[in-house]
Specification:
mainly beta; 11 strands; 120 residues; 0% helix
């Protein structure tokens, strides 16, 4: 069955960095655009980034642009999100998502999430 397993979350100070990973299985990873969404406590999901099937095109939410970088390794069936210059407002549960197309930010599957906490 389809599985997306996130890892790499943790607690960091403001200004710090983390690298999230998402291991995909149960489907042909290179056939799908992939992305990340996050959900902070008491708030709804926030789309933050998407990457096309070959990894040549990316888009970001304004809230993370120039700080976060999405990438993928199709040979390893793995999606990544590099988080730099972290702020307290980046604290959230981060989910890996699968998308039918690069232009569709609505996902058809997501993982269980990995927690990112940013505090002094």
């Amino acid at each position: 069955q389809v599985q997306l397993v996130e890892s790499g979350g943790g607690s960091v100070q403001p200004g710090g960095s983390l690298r999230l990973s998402c291991a995909a299985s149960g489907f042909t990873f290179s056939d799908y655009a992939m992305g990340w969404v996050r959900q902070a406590p008491g708030k709804g999901p926030e789309w933050i980034s998407i990457i096309n099937i070959g990894g040549s095109r990316t888009r970001y939410a304004d809230s993370v642009k120039d700080r976060f970088t999405i990438s993928r390794d199709n040979a390893k069936n793995t999606l990544y999100l590099q988080l730099n210059s972290l702020k307290p407002e980046d604290t959230a549960l981060y989910y890996c998502t699968r998308h039918a197309t690069y232009w569709n930010t609505r996902s058809d599957f997501r993982g269980q999430g990995t927690q990112v906490t940013v505090s002094a």
